[in-house]
Specification:
This protein is mainly alpha-helical and 114 residues long. The protein is built from four helices and no strands.
Length: 114
């Protein structure tokens, strides 16, 4: 357990993170699409393909790279599935209290990170 005043160092596996994010987007597409549309089925099919690649290859490093390619083909239009039918727009948003209870230098750091 990390105690107050202590920290911990985390090293993120970029490939696993990308697969997680692709699966999250595919899930949201399937969940938010009208029932029984081809987009919904294509998103579920692609997610299933990703899970199959990971499972059949015991979650090897190479399987994560294969999963990224599968997700990219759907999400970035590199295959027939999900290619020219729909466009997804994403807009990021964050709230920054730039003049809050910290020094000006901390405000600069927070704005840059956000």
């Amino acid at each position: 357990n990390v105690q107050p005043g202590e920290g911990s160092l985390v090293c993120k596996d970029q490939a696993k993170y990308e697969v997680f994010m692709d699966l999250s987007v595919l899930y949201d597409i399937a969940k938010e699409s009208d029932d029984k549309t081809s987009l919904c089925y294509d998103a579920m099919y692609t997610a299933n393909e990703i899970i199959n690649v990971l499972t059949l290859n015991n979650h090897s490093v190479e399987s994560y790279h294969q999963a990224i390619i599968i997700g990219s083909n759907f999400l970035r239009g590199g295959s027939n599935i999900g290619s020219s039918r729909d466009t997804i727009h994403a807009i990021g948003n964050c709230h920054i209290d730039s003049a809050w209870l910290w020094p000006y230098r901390e405000t600069i750091r927070k704005v840059a990170r956000s």
